[in-house]
Design brief:
It contains 13 helices and 24 strands. The chain is an alpha/beta fold. The strands form 6 sheets. Strands 1, 2, 3, 4, 5, 6 and 19 form a 7-stranded mixed beta sheet that branches. Strand 9, helix 6 and strand 10 form a beta-alpha-beta unit. Helix 1 packs parallel to helix 8. The longest helix is centred in the first third of the chain and has 25 residues. The chain is globular and about 65 Å long.
Amino acid sequence: MESFDLIVIGSGPGGYVAAERAGALGKTVLLIEKEQYGGVCTNHGCIPTKSLLNSAKLYVHAKEAAQFGVQTESVSFNLADAMAWKEETIKTLRSGIEFLMKSNKVQTLFGEALVLDAHHVQVGETVYETSYLILATGSSSVVPPIPGSRLDHVLTSDGILELKEIPASLVIIGGGVIGIEFASFFSMIGTKVTVIEMMSEILPMMDAEFAKLMRRELKAVDFHLGCKVEEITAEAVLYTDAKGQKQSVQASLVLMSVGRRPNTQGLEKLGLDIERRGVVVNDRMQTNLATVYAIGDVNGRSLLAHSASRMAEVAVSNIFGSKAMHMRYHAIPWAVYGNPEAAGCGLTETEAGKLGIPVRSQTVQMRSNGRFLAEHGKKGAGLVKVICHAETSVILGIHLLGPYSSEMIWGAAALIEAELRVQDVKEIVFPHPSVSELIKDACFALDHTL
């Protein structure tokens, strides 16, 4: 029986990072993947959606280029070419993961993993032994038992990424990150898009002021909030609106985007502690079985690719490293890559209020910024909000809506993780002109002292 220091099940951004880090430490590692390198993120999620969104943004920018002195004629969007670009991107990234595995002497096995116990995993007819096991099996799209939810024109995020033609109309059930990114993409390329959301606002993790502005900026999208979908037919989606009235909207295509569930199938017999949201872990990513760790979506703690990668580092450090790490969740950034972009890190004012934390906040308009104005003009919309503790001035949250938000938010994570005060940020030199200067502007607005 072939034996390893570590077996990792799943090669998404949690699994392949765990395998790479352990391999770099000189450990013998077996990575088991049932499909292709990269998991959902690379093949069906983060990467393909960002590729398509970029194509759509270029299309919109080309149509709006005249105001910037760029004349364009006969601009059109070719879905087949955009899909081909998406596939090329995915293949390149898969090759990169394969290179990382080989560089760190990680052995990869493609097939379905059957976990026999904490130290034995079977693939096909072969059983492999391991000292430690990391579960990185990810999550799958939820399809609720709505009548008609299994019709052919009702897709999840997996299926909609393989379309051959641009749909005339699309109803998106769910106004979370996935739903809003697809709403942004399809509305930019000419599809009539409707979003039906059960909650009173889209993007529940977002600052309420920012979520409202996001909806306003997605001008081509119809939003129906506080609504419950009752049935899907071949021609329409039937729902009850916020006033209890029966309504319907026509749809040639429906996207089911109401959440994801952890892939825990087959793990129950191990004796793992599994709750509704996923495998229970401590802050070191360790399960109730001492040699078994669970990272990424399967533990349900933070369903973000970068969270999974950090969980991988924490798990490997606690298994093989020289120091014990633990997972901290208060400074994990999130981003929505639509048009406009949005991102945030730390607390919103509403969350702080629920925790009884006294806060002060300041919001500044992006159009007051030199680079934003030069590249987007007076009609462009965007906001930056900084939230700090009312008494200590320690920064507790930073929220962005507008261009480059996803590229700036790491800095917010660093400020929050380091527990910097507003006064500390005021002493940092930001490049000029840059949209990031707005973070410093908001901090100065919170504290005018020098």
